[in-house]
Design brief:
One of its GO terms (biological process) is carbohydrate metabolic process. By secondary structure, this protein is of the alpha/beta class. Helices cover 58% and strands 10% of the residues.
Length: 292
């Protein structure tokens, strides 16, 4: 009888122990779940807070850039009013009898030949290059810099619909092109030319974004239309426009392309410019840009 009672006590004690162990196990599960939930909530909270802080900082940076841009524009307008017309050319770094030859869409498999032609006339030029072409012809890209010419950026896609798609699409392509140029040559450039020219494609908000991001937008004042001529007709077109070019407040910027049919007849144009005592110079980032 005493043994049976002892067994009952053991069974009851075991049962109580099992219930306590089960409760403790359940309690641990609940505690772990709550802890995970709290950690998740904290992570989400921290991520949201970080996003808010990033957005706020980004807005503050944009505002500072805008203030800086407006201040520069204010100073520029004041200078334009105060400086006599005859001195404005020097103020804008537009030298008389100076021609700025620019080549778009390169580099290409013709660039080496183009550089040799320029070298023979001691001419300097500005090359607005496409990002995929720089990657395809890295040696030509380096040769442009080596020969003392100035690199510019012309974007990635050269597709009107894609390039001008949104407020940030222009900046995105130009920054990618800038990074590629830097990785290949070790130097950077803020000079840009948008595909097909800034007008009518580039919106005012896109232009503002370009300025706020430090890019300098350049168009041209003489369009050779060399892309459509096969037998050098572009040379006479440029000469004709140059003879009638009368503005002293605009630089002489000639639009050409890095293509075979342009290079074949380029000596004819360079010979004329040399004969007429024009200086063939490259652009620089200190010049006030001309755009449509």
């Amino acid at each position: 009888m005493m043994v049976r009672k002892h067994d009952e006590i053991i069974i009851k004690a075991f049962f109580i122990f099992f219930c306590l162990a089960t409760l403790l196990f359940i309690f641990n599960i609940i505690l772990v779940s709550k802890t995970k939930a709290m950690i998740t909530e904290d992570s989400v909270f921290n991520e949201v807070e970080l996003q808010k802080e990033y957005f706020q900082l980004d807005q503050e940076i944009r505002e500072l850039k805008k203030i800086n841009y407006e201040a520069k524009q204010s100073v520029k307008k004041k200078l334009d009013k105060e400086i006599p017309v005859e001195n404005k050319v020097n103020n804008k770094s537009y030298k008389q009898k100076t021609v700025y030859i620019t080549f778009d869409d390169g580099p290409s498999n013709n660039t080496d030949e183009l550089l040799e032609v320029l070298k023979s006339y001691q001419a300097k030029a500005t090359f607005f290059m496409l990002e995929p072409n720089m990657r395809k012809y890295p040696d030509a890209t380096k040769a442009i810099i080596r020969d003392g010419h100035v690199p510019g950026l012309h974007g990635v896609s050269h597709n009107k619909q894609k390039f001008y798609e949104s407020k940030n699409s222009v900046i995105s392509e130009m920054k990618q092109t800038q990074v590629t140029l830097k990785s290949i040559t070790g130097i950077s450039s803020n000079l840009i030319r948008t595909p097909y020219g800034s007008s009518p494609h580039l919106t005012s908000s896109q232009l503002d974004e370009c300025v706020l991001n430090g890019f300098i937008v350049w168009d041209w004042t003489i369009d050779s239309e060399d892309w459509k001529y096969k037998k050098g007709e572009y040379v006479q077109k440029v000469i004709h426009e140059l003879k009638s070019f009368s503005s002293i407040e605009k630089p002489v910027v000639i639009l050409l392309h890095d293509k075979k049919t342009t290079i074949d007849y380029l000596p004819n144009l360079l010979s004329y410019l040399d004969k007429e005592d024009y200086e063939l110079d490259a652009m620089n980032e200190q010049m006030n840009p001309y755009h449509f």
